[in-house]
Amino acid sequence: MFLPFERAEAQVSKPFSFAFVSDCHLITRLADSFKLTQESQLFLQDAIKQINGLAPDFVIFGGDQVEAVGEDEANWQLFIDIVQTLNCPWSFILGEKDVSGNVPVDKLKTYGRDWKGKGLAGDQSYWSQDVLPGVHLIGLDTSRANTMAGELSSEQLTWLQADLDSNKHGIVIVASHHPLLAPAPFDGGPPWDDYVLSEAASAREILNSSRYVRLAVSGHVYVSKIERERDIWYVSGPALDVYPCGFRFFHVDQQGITVETYQVDYPALVKKARNNLVSSTLALHYNNNHPAAFLEVVEGARLDQNAQLPFSRNGTIEPVKHRSPVKEKPVVEEKPPEKKKEGHSFFKRKKKQEEPPAKEDAKKVKGDQNKKPPPPAKEPTKSDEQTDEKAGQEKNEVKEAPDAKQSGESSNQE
């Protein structure tokens, strides 16, 4: 049982849940690497189906929704079409893949109208919103075009401080593509520091100044990791098209946060992603002699996958078994019953045959049953056979008489 958290200012008035999906890398006609880009659409569709079964209050897409925007924004439009099947509100933040290209993507021109469609200003690439009563969500923009490293501009950090100062109620959740607290080995030197956010420490200092921030979620590094700094839980999530091919699901109530990890429902393809990751440059950088050791890093320990995170400083993280999504039932159109015509139903005729006889018919049947059966026919005797033979001869003589008369008449005519 969780102890109540100590900061009275941060309150969860009503339990809620949400999903965090990151690094979908949606694209068409691109060969697989350690990213299963050819399966990216299939994986995204499966994740949406599972999320609908979990019935969250909202969904956050954590950046790198596409591997590239594509010509005429084709990949981004495909992403929009797929996620429209969600049964709840959703929003998104940007990753480096969303803005990269031979010509860097204009963030506001490409994505501004979609943020506006979600009730956001759309005049900057970072945002905040009260997604539920007492639940304030902040979406940071850490993306930089054509590089794996992230950045937070001084203007964005100033905005972040002002936003937290003006929201002093309920609970605050922060989403960023790059981790604000980098998990191992990305907290080390080269080549791992090429993936980190240089302003991460400054951002955490601002978050720690608020008594309402309790959770920060991120993607980018494909590592499942849960860490705590002061009163804030930092949860790094897996990629959808990189092993282990999953997403996070959160349930928040007065006592704390429950974190669950779900995997796409294609075991053979997940195995393929596992093998591809073992042969990747990242795995070789981690351990050149035993690259498969990198799998344990991205999978995370048991408490990095499914856990209960208490708000109280005195509480301890505990393992939890996640529930299975409710499978969507296929929609079946109801058809009006067909009217059956009399005399055209085999079953109706059969039923009539099996019905018991009426009272009058029953009496008739009973009377017929009381009648004595006729005596059996006698076998013919020898005298009977002679009598029948004599009668047959006489019959033949009678038949021959007219023939003779006709013969005589014919002779006279001649």
Topology summary:
Elements: E1 16-21, H1 40-54, E2 58-61, H2 74-83, E3 90-92, H3 96-99, H4 107-116, E4 127-132, E5 135-139, H5 154-165, E6 171-175, H6 200-208, E7 213-218, E8 225-229, E9 232-236, E10 246-252, E11 256-263, H7 267-278, H8 281-286, H9 294-299, H10 302-305, E12 307-310, E13 318-319, H11 346-354, H12 359-370, H13 382-413
Parallel strand pairs: 1-2, 2-3, 5-6, 6-7, 7-9
Antiparallel strand pairs: 1-10, 4-5, 8-9, 10-11, 11-12, 12-13
Helix pairs in contact: 5-6
**How many angstroms does the end-to-end distance come to?**
135 Å
Report the structural category. alpha/beta
CATH topology-level name: Purple Acid Phosphatase, chain A, domain 2
Q: Order of strands side by side in the largest beta sheet?
A: 3-2-1-10-11-12-13
CATH architecture: 4-Layer Sandwich
Number of domains: 1
**Gross geometry:** globular
Number of helices: 13
* Helix/strand order: EHEHEHHEEHEHEEEEEHHHHEEHHH
- Show unreliable segments: 1-8, 341-352, 394-414
The quaternary state of the protein chains shown equals single chain
Helix content: 25-40%
Q: Can you tell me the CATH superfamily?
A: Metallo-dependent phosphatases
Most strands sheet: 7 strands, mixed
Total beta-strand segments: 13
CATH level 1 name: Alpha Beta
What distinguishing features does this structure have?
7-stranded mixed β-sheet; alpha/beta; globular; 16% strand; 414 residues; disordered N terminus; disordered C terminus; Purple Acid Phosphatase, chain A, domain 2
Summarize the structure.
The protein is α/β, with parallel strands linked by helices.
